[in-house]
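Phosphoribosyl-ATP pyrophosphohydrolase
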Amino acid sequence: MHYIGIDLAWTYANESGICVIADNGEIIYCESRVFSDEMIGDIVAEYARAGALVGIDAPLIVNNETGARYCDGAIMREKIHGRNLSVFTCSRRFMLKHFGVVRGEEVVKAIRKRMPEFALTGDLSNKEHVIMETFPTGITLGLFPDAFPVKYKIKHKVPFETTKTEMGRMVSLLQRLGDFNPPVHNINDFFNHSPGIQAMSKKEYKNLEDRLDAFLCAYAAYWLVRHKGKVIGDDRDGFITIPVIDEKEVRDGGSERIKIYNKLIRDKIPQIIEDSGKKAIIAKVSGPEYLDLLNAKLGEEIQEYLDSQKVEELADLVEVVYAILDYKGVSRQEFESIRKQKVEERGAFRDRLLLKEVRED
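Tokens:
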């Protein structure tokens, strides 16, 4: 039996992620690239000879011409670990207008063409070949409620450095799965938190994001054959299935007791944590890794100020700027001279001028 996760691109030009977990808890395939429907069908067929549960992050049943699917609205109304989820709602008309195809349906057809025994269903009982719809945000809430939300998706208004810090947090959370039931034994071979995340370009980062989402879908399938999950909707008009760990496991199993940050902190924070009766696990960083973390912290502090508009957030921002200057060997006096020179050459912002357009004479 194999457990296959597919983070499906809704268009044929973009990369999709595919991950396969074996019955022994080993990741045996994890890749992101441009796949055709036929290529996906071939990969699934290769690993499904002895049975497979396939979890796909994409709408697989879209019968509604307009509006939202019932399962999309229902899952947003559902409380999971006391929280609400947000999902992308879709209709058939919307999918065809913007993407030209309901690609999830086409992938299901491609899989069934090779192996007709596959059932598209939320009922996992007594079936060896099943395709189900799931999605990474719901999986993250279901498995890691104490850490949710983990905002590792690239967003237009969020600094990329902040998003990369969140990805580091997500990758660290995956390490917990080595102690879950069922466990995954070789996560570090595929997802290893390192300064490399901070150095990634957006293209490299998106590739990692697709592989990670595919892994989450595969692990959801792996978990759901051993535990009862949550199924929203039905096989006729669309369903979404996610794993949800037991509330007692959240309270007693350590999920609530360990919070993973992997971010730069002020010098006195470890002592403040210890004084509160908790234990802080810290490490000293240096060189390019330190600069990467400072840059990520800068993005984090900018976002916190934009969200709150509080002056104290500006103080945090300036402290990070000072740390970056120290790293680069630039004194406060030198920095102030650079600032004054720019004011002399280009002015400041005292006159509150808004540039609306520039016209050629």
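Confidence is low (pLDDT under 50) at residues 250-256.
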